[in-house]
């Protein structure tokens, strides 16, 4: 970030000390969101020089901010804006001591903003959210689920709430395996472990296969949750670009020439956030490399059945079941609150995953599994997915039309072949955080591109998600974004003309 703060309004004749004025200046910027959670503040010597005070005064400023709960310091790393805001009414309930004993966990403003926008801002009626890839509430099959839920209690009774094995309900595993045989992600029910959503599946696979210092490769940009799961193992995570043919296997080969890779993670169909497919030629080469170099592939298929263009692709696991572990869920087709996902694997990895699942939560909700098994067996899911895909295609087309109307010449994008998102890249450079704050002021949210990327991207990009907004709302959301973009460019030009204090 730039540390050129304008401190020209410091009043050295004021009854308020310069120290307190500096404390108030930084605190106000944090309160307004101009300094984001996890952001690093300038070193005390730089603050002292900019403010015309001595180093001890600058250190006193940061100490007061820490006492008020605005910042936290890490020896050898610097001073950072706290992830949680200070609580002015905490009284004697002061829990700041916990920061000293909790392990260090890097936090970026972009990932914090992405989580906030996905959950809190998605519920804000004043904000048009293009940040959340959640299914539209209007498309959730409520009637079908209500019917099978009643059937579960009528037929199963109290056993619907009984403990079951960590691997999952046998009837559900059979239903999933039947779909696996058609799509190529599984051959039998004994390969399936039911999870609490795909997110748990990704996390279990990452922890089962990676240790600190191992090398993992992931497409970049990627699903934020997959990226976080890999990073939190302590492994070195290297990003590989995604283009119109999906995951760049040539780039992977260059990495393999220098590193022993343990795991490669990707979405091979309707990728999040680009909406692209991995080409058959690249898929074949990727599987061949996994066999040659003895690494595992983590294949995430959550969007694979939500297609707008072309036919459904066979999963990577179809051609290399021993080298590919597959994760999927009903979250994107039915509803995220169902929390029903699964892993398909075999060999020693399968046993390790089952044990880790037991240790994590014993088993996924028995009731949810009974409901899902009957829902899938009824045939309603295939009809629902076809309806949902048609509806989301209309949303996609509306978003792309709005982009053409309001951002032609300012950005590039490719209509996704499936999924919930459009990946947009701006032609002109603009500060990502400044643009995001302008967008919130304009009443629109999205996912900043750096939150989905392994390394800071060289160009400003963003993920725009379309399921939650009606076509006319998507038009308004993009109009607001265009207003925010113009405001960010104006502010950037103005900052370049101001003298540095």
List keywords for this structure.
501 residues, alpha/beta, eight-stranded mixed β-sheet, four-stranded antiparallel β-sheet, 43% helix
β-strand amount: 5-15%
Structural class: alpha/beta
Radius of gyration: 25 Å
Determine the number of helices (DSSP H or I, runs of at least 4 residues). Answer: 16
Main sheet overview: 8 strands, mixed
Please give the number of β-strands.
16
Which spans have pLDDT < 50 for at least 5 consecutive residues? none
Average pLDDT number: 91
Estimated helix fraction: 40-55%
Distance between the termini: 16 Å
Principal-axis shape equals globular
Strand sequence of the main sheet, in spatial order? 4-11-10-9-8-5-6-7
Layout: helices, strands, pairs:
Elements: H1 18-31, H2 44-51, H3 55-67, E1 71-74, E2 78-81, H4 98-101, H5 109-119, E3 128-129, H6 142-156, H7 170-183, E4 192-195, H8 197-209, E5 215-220, H9 224-231, E6 236-243, E7 246-247, H10 249-256, E8 261-266, H11 280-293, E9 296-300, E10 324-329, E11 341-344, H12 348-361, H13 366-377, H14 380-407, E12 411-413, E13 421-426, H15 432-442, E14 444-445, E15 447-448, E16 461-465, H16 471-497
Parallel strand pairs: 3-14, 5-6, 5-8, 8-9, 9-10
Antiparallel strand pairs: 1-2, 4-11, 6-7, 10-11, 12-13, 13-16, 15-16
Helix pairs in contact: 1-3, 2-3, 6-13, 7-13, 8-9, 8-12, 14-16, 15-16
């Amino acid at each position: 970030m730039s540390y050129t703060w304008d401190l020209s309004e410091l009043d050295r004749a004021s009854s308020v000390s310069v120290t307190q004025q500096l404390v108030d200046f930084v605190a106000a910027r944090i309160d307004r969101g101009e300094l984001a959670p996890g952001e690093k503040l300038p070193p005390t010597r730089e603050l002292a020089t900019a403010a015309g005070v001595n180093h001890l005064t600058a250190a006193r400023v940061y100490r007061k901010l820490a006492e008020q709960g605005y910042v936290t310091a890490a020896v050898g790393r610097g001073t950072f804006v706290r992830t949680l805001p200070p609580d002015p009414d905490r009284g004697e309930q002061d829990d700041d001591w916990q920061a000293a004993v909790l392990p260090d966990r890097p936090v970026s403003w972009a990932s914090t903003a992405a989580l906030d926008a996905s959950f809190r801002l998605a519920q804000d009626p004043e904000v048009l959210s293009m940040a959340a890839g959640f299914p539209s509430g209007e498309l959730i099959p409520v009637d079908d689920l209500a019917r099978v839920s009643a059937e579960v209690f009528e037929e199963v009774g109290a056993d619907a709430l009984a403990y079951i094995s960590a691997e999952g309900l046998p009837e559900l595993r059979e239903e999933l395996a039947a779909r696996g045989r058609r799509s190529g992600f599984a051959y039998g029910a004994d390969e399936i472990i039911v999870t609490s959503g795909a997110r748990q599946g990704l996390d279990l696979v990452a922890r089962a296969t990676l240790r600190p210092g191992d090398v993992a490769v992931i497409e970049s940009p990627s699903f934020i949750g997959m990226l976080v799961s890999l990073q939190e193992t302590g492994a070195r995570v290297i990003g590989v670009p995604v283009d119109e043919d999906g995951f760049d296997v040539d780039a992977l080969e260059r990495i393999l020439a220098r590193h022993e890779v343990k795991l490669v993670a990707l979405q091979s169909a309707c990728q999040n956030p680009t909406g692209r497919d991995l080409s058959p030629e690249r898929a074949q080469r990727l599987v061949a490399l996994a066999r040659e170099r003895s690494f595992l592939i983590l294949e995430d298929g959550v969007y694979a059945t939500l297609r707008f263009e072309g036919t459904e692709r066979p999963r990577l696991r179809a051609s290399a079941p021993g080298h590919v572990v597959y994760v999927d869920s009903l979250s994107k087709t039915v509803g995220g609150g169902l929390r029903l996902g699964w892993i398909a694997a075999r060999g020693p990895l399968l046993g390790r995953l089952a044990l880790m699942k037991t240790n994590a939560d014993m088993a996924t909700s028995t009731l949810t599994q009974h409901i899902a098994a009957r829902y899938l067996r009824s045939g309603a899911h295939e009809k629902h997915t076809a309806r949902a895909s048609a509806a989301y295609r209309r949303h996609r087309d509306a978003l792309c039309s709005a982009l053409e109307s309001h951002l032609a010449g300012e950005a590039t994008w490719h209509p996704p072949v499936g999924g919930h998102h459009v990946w947009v890249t701006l032609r002109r450079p603009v500060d990502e955080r400044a643009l995001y704050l302008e967008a919130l002021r304009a009443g629109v949210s999205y996912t900043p591109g750096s939150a989905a990327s392994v390394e800071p991207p060289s160009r400003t990009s963003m993920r725009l998600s379309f399921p939650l907004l009606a076509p006319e709302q998507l038009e308004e959301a993009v109009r607001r974004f265009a207003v925010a973009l113009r405001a960010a460019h104006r502010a950037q030009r103005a900052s370049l003309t101001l003298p540095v204090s």
